[in-house]
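Obj: model holo form, ligand = glutamic acid.
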Amino acid sequence: MSEVRLRFAPSPTGYVHIGSLRTALYDYLFANQKGGKYILRIEDTDRSRYVEGAVENMVQSLLWAGVKHDEGVFIEDGKLIQKGEYGPYIQSERLDIYKKYIDELIQKGKAYYCFCSKERLDKVREEQKEQGVTPMYDKYCRNSDKTEAESRIKAGEEYTIRLRVPENKDITFEDLVKGNITINTDEIDDQVLIKTDGFPTYHFAVVVDDYLMKITHVVRGDEWLVSTPKQIILYQAFGWKIPEFIHLPTVLNKDKKKLSKRQGDVAVSDFQKKGYLPEALCNYLALVGWSPEDNQEILTMDEMVKQFSFNRVSKTGGVFDLDKLNWVNGQHIRKSDLDRITKLAIPYLIDKNYITKEDVNKRYDWIKAIIASVQEKISYISEITDKIDIFFKNEIVPENDEAGEMLKKEQVPDLLQALKNEILQIDEVDDEFVNNIFKVLKNKTGIKGKNLFMPTRIVLTGQLHGPDMGNIIKVLGKQNILKRIEYVERNLIK
Ligand code: GLU
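Output (holo structure tokens):
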């Protein structure tokens, strides 16, 4: 079998949508499983939708996500470069190639020049709508004389080139996810292949490029399913081998509508900014529309590469569930090395003024202890800042009445006195202190269990629940613990 080759072919309209990242991910998983290649091609022939800087952003998002391509467009030293033997991989740089292939279709009589003005086309469309028929080009120029057309072009007339769609012919293809699909060509427009600005349309460029780049599997969202028969007509017009088609179910929101920017974050960069882990985002996205045989939910990239199959991609929409993503991300955070999570968290802590840049080197172990105390409790990294403010305010505020009442219990003053006595005997909190303190307090005061732990937690944090007590004591250190005890004694115990 020839080498498996897949492509991800975004249009540079601004950012990578998470639905598109899933498409790229499936390309990547399948190509890597089969020892093939996955390429990144930029489809920028719609000049009206072009956004400056979009290509760079998109390449960066894919790289961040770890969905690494083998060929196509890359960034090196901040510059866009292209690698691979089938380039250029940016469609606007391939215009001479499209020219060659459109000439071939004209020669073969499979495409024709069209001089219809926009006004005429609009009028035809309006009339068709009034008659209740599906608007389609009325084939006005289909049988015009080619030599005459060529002299009109020489004279400077504006024109497009259209596909001569065969009449009344069934086009059948098998989609690896959606199954067999048949459509009659009478329902297909004589679509434009070359626009008045000389640029190819998506349909034409995509077929020429997929052929020349030796793509074996075309994977894309199912909004393109209706385009596939048109593209097959083009393959047939050229006499080219038709690739496998795989149309993926749309990524939906909880209301089963297409996931769009209006409802919140949809750009990969949004998730990057919030501190999702790339491997977790990929893990979760892979599961929106696919599941491994054993329904395992937490998977590494390598496990997904091994287990992925288009046979197990569902036919209909997968729902993007933020709670589930948060859970998956949380699982990956817990599995991660503490140093990695600490490094990822540092920019957020600096941003919120919890730490300074100088602290990063000077007090790295302390920062690490802060992160350790919440690693088990966060869903994404930026959430850390909400969970750690307890470490930075010595004026304790009980989080609710229950916490406030707990401090008023009879044994609390004795407990605080005992804790103060112990802590005054040490220079600084260390592991030994942390490991023994509750045993010592219990022996000295006779207070135990919930009556020992709960008030201590509230005195130190104001909260009934939260990070592990050992971590809290370590992060706060001697002076902060003393300040908190004194604050509580002065203000909250009567
Ligand atoms: N350029 C199209 C897009 O932006 C790609 C469609 C395809 O993969 O054929 O989604």
